[in-house]
């Protein structure tokens, strides 16, 4: 019996609301292999910033740098209302943590030592995160496109082979900003040598400086908002390289800003819920042992051990007991707690890069009209007699032989 006209048998929700793929990012972000590489990156990044502080800053300067995010404070209140608190959502928190050093580098009151501190820390962060960020974005774009998670080994090989591209992509716009700044910097040297003459020259040339500022604004604005799209572009495209990532990210940011904002709001709200789940799980893992230990060792004693271990996990050595065995035991417990906190913190970044990958695929569909499943897939090498190339750009659902032909 034929169905009556107009009868709806099913609804293709993904075609009707493509942004629903954002809700698939949590499953990708909590993959143990991705959390492991992200945890290692969190620990190495922290180590790099400590080294940078010792190399370039005094003790007072290191304390002064531990201030709230300037980028978070710069968001207009009208826009802040659309987002959850950045402390509760991994998307914004990870974004601010990775973007903040670059924003602080452009402050007027920066000393030479502080400039070196932020430059070293930024490059260290970029170098460390280029590999795990590549792995996360590569797995995310493939899994979102094909509904099948790629295995760890080819994902790691892909990330390692393109590591330099991931590292260089965010530096391209900075190179353009530097080239625009060099003539103005030379004018500043003239100002240092002869203040009055330098001011007069600056006044005459300031219209040109303003024009250069427009170019710098375009470059810096596209970088601040578009760099999260650069790594997914390298991960998704066959010819993904720094220049391709640069052009795509800027095109998507400036062509569809409202679409981008909508996707970020949805991802941030969903991320806040995901972070609540992860944080509660981390707290339960942390507190279960102390609860069970208190039944045998007594509440006051275990509470003191817990407080000491939490101090050690936070990097504070305020000993409550001078006993050597006490210090050894609480130190070991504190290291385990620090690892738990690091894994929970790593989720912020794995979710951030997974969500950025989903947003990239959505914006690519909006701007370039490319389907979500059109991502670059590496296929295993065929026997020598086969004419099929070892690497093919495969559209999901189309056999490699058809693509090659």
Provide a descriptive summary of the structure in words.
The protein has helices at 13-16, 25-29, 32-56, 59-65, 70-74, 77-80, 90-105, 112-146, 152-161, 163-168, 171-193, 195-236, 242-255, 257-297, 299-313, 324-368, 400-404. The chain has 405 residues and is mostly helical. It has a domain at 17-275. Helix 8 (112-146) packs across helix 16 and helix 14 (257-297) packs antiparallel against helix 16. The protein is globular. Residues 382-405 have low confidence and may be disordered.
Topology:
Blueprint: H1 13-16, H2 25-29, H3 32-56, H4 59-65, H5 70-74, H6 77-80, H7 90-105, H8 112-146, H9 152-161, H10 163-168, H11 171-193, H12 195-236, H13 242-255, H14 257-297, H15 299-313, H16 324-368, H17 400-404
In short:
Helices cover 75% and strands 0% of the residues. The protein has 405 residues and is mainly alpha-helical.
């Amino acid at each position: 019996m034929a169905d009556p006209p107009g009868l709806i048998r099913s609804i293709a929700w993904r075609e009707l609301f493509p942004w629903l793929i954002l809700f698939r990012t949590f499953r990708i972000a909590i993959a143990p292999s991705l959390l492991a590489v992200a945890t290692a990156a969190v620990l190495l990044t922290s180590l790099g910033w400590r080294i940078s502080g010792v190399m370039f800053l005094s003790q007072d300067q290191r304390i002064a740098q531990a201030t709230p995010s300037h980028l978070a404070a710069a968001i207009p209140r009208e826009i802040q209302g659309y987002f959850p608190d950045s402390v509760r959502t991994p998307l914004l928190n990870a974004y601010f943590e990775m973007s903040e050093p670059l924003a602080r580098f452009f402050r007027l009151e920066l000393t030479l030592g502080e400039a070196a501190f932020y430059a070293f820390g930024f490059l260290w962060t970029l170098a460390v995160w280029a590999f795990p960020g590549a792995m996360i974005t590569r797995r995310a774009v493939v899994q979102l496109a094909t509904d099948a998670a790629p295995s760890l080994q080819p994902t790691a090989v892909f990330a390692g082979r393109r590591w330099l591209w991931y590292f260089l992509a965010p530096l391209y716009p900075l190179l353009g900003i530097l080239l625009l700044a060099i003539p103005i910097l030379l004018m500043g040297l003239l100002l240092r040598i002869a203040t009055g003459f330098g001011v007069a020259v600056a006044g005459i040339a300031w219209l040109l400086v303003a024009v250069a500022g427009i170019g710098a604004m375009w470059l810096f604005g596209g970088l601040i908002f578009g760099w999260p799209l650069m790594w997914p572009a390298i991960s998704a495209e066959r010819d993904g390289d720094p220049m391709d990532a640069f052009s795509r990210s800027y095109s998507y940011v400036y062509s569809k800003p409202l679409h981008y904002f909508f996707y970020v709001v949805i991802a941030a709200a969903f991320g806040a819920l995901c972070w609540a789940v992860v944080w509660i799980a981390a707290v339960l893992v942390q507190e279960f042992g102390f609860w069970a230990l208190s039944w045998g060792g007594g509440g006051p004693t275990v509470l003191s051990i817990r407080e000491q271990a939490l101090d050690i996990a936070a990097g504070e050595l305020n000993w409550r007991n001078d006993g050597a065995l006490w210090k050894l035991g609480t130190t070991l417990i504190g290291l385990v707690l620090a690892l738990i906190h690091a894994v929970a913190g790593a989720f912020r970044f794995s979710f951030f890069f997974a969500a950025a990958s989903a947003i990239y695929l959505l914006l690519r569909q909006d701007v370039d009209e490319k389907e979500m499943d059109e991502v670059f897939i590496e296929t295993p090498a065929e026997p020598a007699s086969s004419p099929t190339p070892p690497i093919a750009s495969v559209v999901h659902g189309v056999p490699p032989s058809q693509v090659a032909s």
